[in-house]
Amino acid sequence: MLIIISILDKEVYCEFCSYSSKNKEILQKCGPIYGPFKDCTKYYYLHENCAIWSPKIHMDSNNYFKNVKKEIKRSKQIHCSYCGKRGGGIGCSGDNNKCIKTYHYLCAKLDTCVLDNINYLVYCKKHHKEIYETANNTKDNYIIYEDNQDAKYCQECKSGLDEDKLLLW
After folding, report:
1. Nearest to 132 by CA among 147, 149, 144, 145
2. pLDDT, tens digit, for every residue of 83-127?
3. What is the DSSP letter of 47?
4. pLDDT at residue 11 above 80?
């Protein structure tokens, strides 16, 4: 059974960014922690945004994350271009996916990458322009993050998804 770990529960760490479930600032930026995902005797936990921006993870028809263990294993072999730590498996989609820059979700935001909120693709500073040159794309579909203080997150679950259903205080 998949549950959201609240900040009142035990402390766990995201397998991608390694931040604690007790870090309220990171929960605001990366969303709630999901888990446990079990692999033999080990349990895994992930932030919502760390998971949904990971290229191999998707949700099935029952809204369960799929390919979690494979994506954790893949990303643990990759160093983030921003912070240098392992787990930065979100690659820049620029230059037809040939760019070598990779990021953690939060590091992509801090490095002012463009995040395509429709296709869940990231473009580094060098490849910003490519996203706007694609047919039928408008700047309204994308966000350039500079540690965006104006971002809206649900105060109950800390998710930034489903903006029309956010509970703001």
Report:
1. 144
2. 999 999 999 998 888 999 999 999 998 998 888 888 888 999 898
3. E
4. yes
Helices (H), the chain: 24-30, 48-52, 68-75, 94-97, 105-110, 128-133
- Other C-beta atoms within 10 Å of 95: how many? 13
Residue 71: Cβ-neighbour burial (10 angstroms; 0-12, 13-18, 19+):
buried
**Window from 61-75, 125-139, 142-156 with minimum mean pLDDT:** 142-156
Can you state the percent helix, strand and coil of the chain, rounding each to 5?
25, 25, 50
Residue type for 64, please? Y
Sign of the four-CA dihedral 7, 11, 13, 19:
positive
| CB-CB neighbours of 19 under 10 Å | 19
Which residues, in sequence order, are bridge partners of residue 103? Answer: 90
| Cβ pair 116, 136 in contact under 8 A | no
Alpha carbons 25 and 80: distance in angstroms, whole number: 20
- Please report, for residues 9, 29, 117, the alpha-carbon distance to residue 72 in angstroms, rounded to integers and kept in the order given: 23, 20, 22
Greater confidence (132 vs 4) lies with 132
